[in-house]
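Quick log. Single chain, no ligands specified.
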Amino acid sequence: MDSATAAVMLLLSCSPGGEASVCKPIDTAPTMYTSLDQCQASLARRLASSPNGEIVGRCKSIDPNVTASLPAQYTTVVVKRGIGQGTVTSYVVPREAK
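-> predicted structure:
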């Protein structure tokens, strides 16, 4: 993988529960980075704040030539709650296989 490729950080929040943990997307916009190395360094710092595995994540390379591009196996889901500013949240989620 080219370390100069742009990347996005994907984070999930996991409930404690041993082998049956339930993980859900964190309620924040995906973080974009100019390189995979920069993303992985930031991910390591972010995951260090949850040593018990409450937060899990990974960095995925993206095509920097395409606006808001994601890897083929991911898509963005936009959720609107209520009325006014701050009511729209975007989530990066795995695309369902057909």
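The longest helix spans residues 36-48.
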